[in-house]
Amino acid sequence: MPKDKKRPPSDSESDSGPEDRGPAKKSKPGAASKSSGAAKQEKSDSQLSGQDPSWHLGRNKHVVVRSFKGQTYIDIREYYVDKNTMDTKPGKKGISLNCEQYQKLKTILDEIDHALP
């Protein structure tokens, strides 16, 4: 296999190495990583239904205020509808701002408005 030629030789005969994690990045949501990703997906679905404050911006874009590891984040993200389950799930496109970044964004909103055509 070409992967073996690119990898440096290993002293370990273990099956749990970087080669096991490589294909997971290439797989599409809902393929092989359903069991580990399902818990994250379900949490996001419940956040849209009202556990965390959220606002719909239109065209499948949402703002959600959420806590992660004791920190508060403002998450602006594009969502999609899963074709298999018809659930709304968060996509890859988006940004999470911490409170400091969000406050800075608020201070420059007038400048951004004046820069718009």
UniProtKB/TrEMBL annotation:
Keywords: DNA-binding, Nucleus, Transcription, Transcription regulation. It comes from the Eukaryota. Residues 1-61 are annotated as: Disordered. Residues 55-107 form the Transcriptional coactivator p15 (PC4) C-terminal domain. Residues 29-39 have a biased composition (Low complexity). Its main location: nucleus. This is Activated RNA polymerase II transcriptional coactivator p15. GO terms for molecular function: DNA binding; transcription coactivator activity.
